[in-house]
Amino acid sequence: MELHITGDPAADQLLSNDAFALLVGMLLDQQVTMESAFAGPEKIRTRIGSMAPAAIAEYDPAGFVEIFKERPSIHRFPSSMAGRVQDLAATVQGDWNGDATAIWNQDGPDGEEVLRRLKGLPGFGEQKAKIFLALLGKQCGLQAPGWREAAGPYGQESAFLSVADIVDPESLKRVRASKQAAKAAIKAAKASES
Predict the structure, then answer these.
(1) How many CA atoms lie within 13 Å of 156's alpha carbon, on the beta-carbon side?
(2) How do residues 16-71 score in pLDDT, each as one tens digit?
(3) Percent of the chain with pLDDT over 90
(4) Contact 137, 148 (CB under 8 A)
(5) Which of 125, 131, 133, 166 could form a disulfide with 162 if both were Cys (CB 3.0 to 4.6 A apart)?
């Protein structure tokens, strides 16, 4: 598995090789560009020297917020997102023995069970969990039966709806276009209601 999400070879390499880093990138993917969100784990690793869930969970919370604020910042909402990353790290460490891959591999879960486990993580609602499930299936070799159905529209082939469909600059453009179209449709629907 070699991911091409951020445009930064070091950040993409970390995402490709470290399942927890990929999970953190997905967590950070809100109210910032996808590239910025998924580049966040490499910034964390560079600044604290580790992406291990235990190291992040045990890091001084105030110091971790400062890591997020350091320029270039990891996220536009450093305090809340630093806390969420530490909560996620603590959950992966405590519930999954520090192994993020256990969330989707332990005991051979089907797609629905992987989705349920993802939704149980701090910061992962229904949509984020479905997108991450699609990313696992489309680009990370997840073989869980029924993962496409569990991921909903994000699991469809050639959907170009999310980060799960980004493999190169052209697919990034297509995903951006579909997101802009979806936002425009929501805006138009709200305008017609008023």
Answers:
(1) 7
(2) 999 999 999 999 999 998 999 999 999 999 999 999 999 999 999 999 999 999 99
(3) 80
(4) yes
(5) 131
Per the CB < 8 A criterion, the answer to whether 78 and 69 are in contact is yes
Burial of 78 (0-12, 13-18, 19+ CB in 10 A): middle
**Type of residue found at 87:** D
Joined together, the tokens standing for residue 63 give 């110091």
Half-sphere exposure of 49 (CA within 13 A, CB side): 2
- Is residue 79's pLDDT more than 90? yes
| DSSP state string for the chain | ----SSS-HHHHHHHHH-HHHHHHHHHH-SSS-HHHHHHHHHHHHHHHS---HHHHHHS-HHHHHHHHHSSSPS-SSHHHHHHHHHHHHHHHHHHHTT-TTHHHHTT---HHHHHHHHHTSTT--HHHHHHHHHHHHHHS----TTHHHHTGGGGSTT---SGGG-SSHHHHHHHHHHHHHHHHHHHHHHHHH-
Residue pair 162/132 in contact by the 8 Å Cβ criterion: no
Among candidates 138, 108, 137, 104, which has minimal Cα distance to 119? 104
